[in-house]
Specification:
Blueprint: H1 3-18, E1 31-36, E2 43-51, E3 54-63, H2 66-79, H3 84-99, H4 108-111, H5 124-142, E4 148-149
Parallel strand pairs: 1-4
Antiparallel strand pairs: 1-2, 2-3
Helix pairs in contact: 1-2, 2-5, 3-5
């Protein structure tokens, strides 16, 4: 990755860690799920307001490292207003981006700002930090009350 792009990505991650967007309990949430990474202690709760198959609003609360918090912040922004099926496809694209396991090259345009996490795959231990909130999102979409983990 070119150094200028790496700096930009780091700046976006640091900004979303310092000033996370949608960091609150969503009072009108009709779905929620917790996520916990036992290796590092990251803990998050995702709140969703889903109506007519569309994620109307999303928020989160919890504590974690910069990668985990920034991922949660950017995720909530990315999923709001999207149909549930599209959110699930976005999760698959994001997971492929950070793990390098995607069947095709990650589509930066489809991922938008989430593309800032492309460098995470170089640090396998951090992949769990970036994906924890996404696993909790998946549980919330399914309406499952079990805790999502990275293990």
């Amino acid at each position: 990755m070119n150094p200028e792009l790496r700096e930009l990505y780091q700046a976006v991650i640091l900004d979303h860690n310092k000033k996370p967007r949608n960091f609150r309990v969503l009072e009108e949430a009709n779905r929620s799920a917790e996520g916990f990474n036992p290796l590092c202690g990251d803990r998050v709760t995702v709140y969703l307001d889903v109506e007519d198959g569309v994620v109307r609003k999303a928020s989160f609360q919890g504590s974690g490292c910069a990668i985990s918090t920034a991922s949660a912040s950017l995720m909530t922004q990315a999923v709001e207003g999207r149909p549930v099926d599209e959110v699930r496809r976005l999760f698959e694209r994001f997971h492929g981006l950070v793990t390098g396991s995607g069947r095709e090259a990650p589509d930066a345009e489809a991922l938008g700002k989430l593309a800032v996490f492309s460098g995470v795959r170089e640090f396998p231990a951090r992949v769990k930090c970036a994906t924890l909130v996404w696993h909790a999102l998946e549980k919330a979409l399914e309406g499952k009350q079990e805790v999502a983990t990275t293990e």
